[in-house]
Amino acid sequence: MTSATKPSPMPPRFRRLLAVALVLAVPAMPLAAHHSFAMFDPGRPMTFQATVKTLQWTAPHAILWVQAGPVGGYDAGLWSLELPTSPGNLSKMGWSRTVLKPGDKVVVDINPMRDGRRAGQFKKARIVATGKVLGIGTIPGTQPPK
Amino acid sequence: MRPASRLLPLLALAIACPAIAQRASDRVDPAPTAADWQAIARLPDWSGTWSPDIVDQNAQIRTNPTPWKPDIQRQVDHWTAEEAAGRPKGLLIDCLPHGTPTFILITHNALEILFSPGRVTILGESDGNRLRRIHTDGRAMPADPDPSFHGYSVGHWDGSTLVVDTKGILPQVYLAVSEAVGIPNNGDMRVKERIHLVDPDTLAFDLEIDAPRVLTRPWKTTRLYHRKRQRSHEIVEGVCRQGDFRDATDARGNAIFAPAYQQDGNILPAPNEK
To answer: What is the pLDDT of residues B219-236, one digit of tens each?
Structure first.
């Protein structure tokens, strides 16, 4: 499945505000703070709906664990989706450990592991119930001040 | 008791317990005075959180490449190709410290710098083990410091520039240009740094890295860090190895860390996990 769009109960204007405030959806550049992300395949991007199991809010990289049904050639099951950096840096991008909660239905954009395991590089998540989009930008402060 | 015989029990104790004999030469630093603390107020203001300029890090590697020896360059080319092929070497996935100077060269995380009498301390985000102690109390570099990840650092102020000399770095410490490309320094590395503000909120680390076992000549390079004062940029605890575990509950209902299933540095669902 590639998407799941429920009408959002949130007024569009508020959604836009949230999208700006939280985000995040700047084109992703590799931001590995601990290891290279070359084990993920940017040539096979995937989008699918899943249910959040937990947002593992730990250094050196936070991990979003989600349950998904069969997708592409993958069996249904648990996925680990690695965020590019630490909770310290993610906080500067507007994330928090409670921004995704167990049970949240999300549509995730990822680059899967090259070797076919159910794991991937997190790129973006849209919370189905609210339309809120969580993406990954550059780490504020790591670039020259504008 | 004659003076010589008075010393006899002490001598006997010293022979019996070498550690006590050694303490006779263990210098005791006096407590800092108010004047020592006032002197710190005259140092440049390096407070706040310093975030690495990653764009400049990458530009430095492109425009001022590491002068690897030819045989080392072949290894570097191999690891560069491996990363390009989607098989990156995880230099840091064991969570051991980056060490000096790689911590300063390639970190993507912020650092903070603390002044106290006779010491400058650099603390990095995301690993409890990104920690450098720079002695600025005028001591000499020891002849043969015990090898460590960050080495033994002595420093002094040259005007508003902190001049640091570091040796005693473990030979296994990578001289790295990225998280996937680096070579152990293999011993005898010495790092000289001049740390100074280049504008009110930009701190430059001018490094001269002398790693004679892997480089053809000392490598001079600079890394820039930008100051942030917002509380959102304050450094938070980040324990590298915490990522090797998942939250779990034991049979008695206690909250515990259970080892995570992982391969090649990737935390994965366990093979039988649904």
So the answer is: 999 999 999 999 989 998
